[in-house]
Specification:
Elements: H1 3-11, H2 14-36, H3 48-74, H4 81-98, H5 113-117, H6 133-157, H7 162-180, E1 193-194, E2 198-199, E3 202-203, H8 207-232, H9 235-252, H10 257-283, E4 285-286, H11 293-306, H12 312-331, H13 336-350, H14 354-379
Antiparallel strand pairs: 1-4, 2-3
């Protein structure tokens, strides 16, 4: 295992993940209190809008962890992870649409409003079962996982790697975007699924429900982080890093590279689907825009900015970049894409290990400086 691999494992220290889990626990506890218990006319009050925004960022952090699991540790750069995120979101959106019932614009007890508008006479077979929350959650994981398994099996079995895999993964998400834009697919066309009312009987417009979704998102982020950390610090994680650094040697040693890649790619897709399922009830809409290739490229930028192969950095990069996006799109929306492109270029050239790498490098230099100062003091 090379020096780079050793440095990446050092970032996954007990202290590092303890700090991450501590921050997650503080955010999970403090934000709801500042929203529900602090009066709105005080400066400590956190508006419900920001609770929803932070909940959305936590979902993006989960998506970034899912990509970092395969890109940072297995060397698989997927530019189509928005497909798995979107499929998880659509699974939850279908459940939420079934819960509307007669409260829709057309008052149909079974068909969503867009199906009534398009003169559909009955519910498509693939919508059956989505009146059950458990079924919707299962589909949010199973459908992205199944797609990743089939796609990964075909790609890894053919030994498609590097930029070629990135290109075909982007082609996959682009094809899904075109398909979901079509009205005859039965997913709302370009408008997607929206106008949700409640989730498990809880009003989605209520502040308490939004806070509850935020807390669940924070809990899931912590669980996803622990799961990813368990994978990368296990024997499988060492095999994945070896595959990333020297795939041909791993094959020569008798390991099944295809199985290792397929497992972690499928797991990553399931995690992305969970993130999408949590994202939809908080933003109130899911449409084919989630399948645009630009969205998947953004995810790669989050991971690169935070620090590829660090988990903590990937999650932090997602929050940091989306925080900057929220700020800049409000101040000067016309420059956001230029900023994003410049950020990716600067990170690639000046911070190849991301923000986490910069912090680690600063700490190493500080430690060396202190050691040198101590040695000079002893010599004197």
């Amino acid at each position: 295992m090379g020096p780079l691999s050793s440095r990446l494992f050092a970032l996954e220290s007990r202290r590092g993940w303890t700090v991450f889990m501590g921050l997650a626990a503080v955010l999970m506890a403090v934000v709801p209190v500042l929203n529900l218990a602090v009066p709105e006319d005080t400066w400590l009050h956190v508006p419900t809008f920001w609770v929803t925004t932070l909940g959305k960022f936590l979902c993006f952090a989960m998506l970034a962890l899912a990509l970092d699991l395969i890109w940072g540790y297995a060397g698989i750069l997927s530019l189509g992870h928005g497909a798995f995120f979107g499929l998880g979101g659509y699974a939850m959106g279908m459940y939420l649409m079934r819960q509307i019932g007669e409260r829709g614009v057309y008052g149909h007890p079974e068909l969503p409003d867009f199906m009534v508008f398009l003169n559909w006479k009955e519910l498509p077979w693939y919508w059956y079962g989505f009146d059950s929350f458990a079924f919707a959650v299962l589909m949010a994981m199973l459908v992205p996982g199944a797609l990743a398994f089939v796609f990964g099996w075909l790609a890894f079995r053919s030994r498609i790697t590097g930029v070629y895999f990135s290109i075909i993964s982007q082609a996959m998400v682009f094809a899904m975007m075109l398909a979901f834009f079509r009205n005859e697919m039965g997913f709302g066309g370009n408008n997607g699924l929206t106008d949700f009312k409640d989730l498990l009987g809880f009003d989605l417009s209520a502040s308490t429900t939004k806070v509850g979704l935020y807390v669940i998102s924070a809990l899931m982020l912590g669980l996803v982080y622990l799961l990813c950390r368990y994978v990368v610090t296990s024997k499988l994680g060492r095999v994945l890093i070896a595959v990333r650094d020297a795939e041909s040697r791993v094959r020569f040693l008798g390991y099944s590279v295809t199985r290792a890649k397929l497992f972690v790619f499928t797991l990553s897709a399931v995690l992305a689907g969970i993130a999408g399922a949590l994202y939809v009830p908080q933003v109130g809409i899911i449409n084919p825009g989630e399948f645009t290739p630009a969205k998947s490229i953004e995810v790669a930028i989050w991971v690169a900015v935070g620090g590829r192969g660090t988990l903590f950095g990937a999650a932090a990069g997602a929050v940091a970049v989306n925080g900057a996006k929220s700020l800049l799109t409000g101040i000067a929306p016309e420059i956001w894409l230029f900023f994003l492109g410049a950020l990716f270029i600067l990170v690639t050239l000046l911070m190849p290990r991301g923000l986490v790498g910069v912090v680690r490098q600063w700490r190493e230099r500080r430690a060396i400086s202190k050691a040198s100062h101590s040695d000079s003091h002893v010599s004197a």
